[in-house]
Amino acid sequence: MKEARFIWMDGQLVPWQDATIHVMSHVVHYGSSVFEGTRCYRTPKGSFCFRLSEHVKRLFFSAKIYRMDIPYSRREIIEATNRLIRENGLEECYIRHLVYRGYAELGLNPITCPLRVAIATYEWPALLGEEGQKTGIDACVSSWQRLAHDTMPLLSKAGGHYLNSQLIKLEAVTNGYAEGIALTTSGFVAEGSGENVFIVKDGGLITPPSAAGILPGITRHSVIILAKERGLKVSRQMIPREGLYIADEAFFSGTAAEITPIRSVDRIVVGDGKPGPVTRMLQEVFNGIITGRDKDTHGWMEPV
Ligand code: PMP
Fold first, then answer.
1. Ligand 1 binding site (Cβ under 6 Å of any ligand atom)
2. Catalytic residue among 45, 57, 134, 157
3. For this structure, is 157 an active site residue?
4. What are the tens digits of pLDDT across the range 73-97?
5. Ligand 1: which atom is nearest the Cα of residue 196?
6. pLDDT at position 127, please?
7. How far apart are CA 7 and CA 31, in angstroms?
8. In order of start, what are the domains of the chain with their CATH numbers?
């Protein structure tokens, strides 16, 4: 990880190396945290965070679900984030917001543990690699299923939920794939370990609905809007596993992965094994916005 100068911890800017917590903190043992990942991009007009307000809104909803009362307003978190980016002298970075239960007791009832908040900003290139964004990546269907709705509140982006994501990712990488795709407990496509999935079929886009237990991504939402504006039909519907194999194109969307084409699933080539025209068009449109080349008609690029 490329360290930056400061981390914002509970209202203070702390040198990166000093931003530590006690090993007996509740979060370390039980995954009691909620978090966000956002990207800040450099453009000719300065640095802009992609949909930071949406990410901070989701952070507050994630916290609410786990009965965490964040002792700051959304505005304060946004201002703290922008200040931190400036103090760290970063023109382009990944932003990690973290709300977690700290040190007090280790009982499962976390209510006595102080709620703590941290923000880190640091340089982090494309998750699945720049090469992956150009040529596409090889994915597999995971033997681990996505969490079911009545086991964990899946609309909360909570630390503990990511044990499931780690199993999916570890299995995929161990078996020589770049990423794994989890199915729902009833066998339909849910999502990647940290990305949403889209397929292109007969010129239209299909992505699993919230009912598939996905985290409804902010990038997914942006892709749906951009695709519709360009006249593409977009449907949120259940996709059976084999729907991935016979898709014309497939891609992942996410803050870290941005738009990454999927060239094969379970070693079955998707389409002709190259990023297809719809995927490339959406990458181009998305890149136009985040690089500042094209007009941001949605107000998604929020100045630092
Ligand atoms: N699903 C999961 C499980 C994720 O962790 C992420 C990354 N936040 C996504 C989907 C994509 O969401 P977003 O586009 O908001 O980054």
1. 37, 165, 191, 194-196, 215, 217-220, 253-255
2. 157
3. yes
4. 999 999 999 999 999 999 999 999 9
5. 10
6. 65
7. 20
8. 6-122 (3.30.470.10), 130-290 (3.20.10.10)
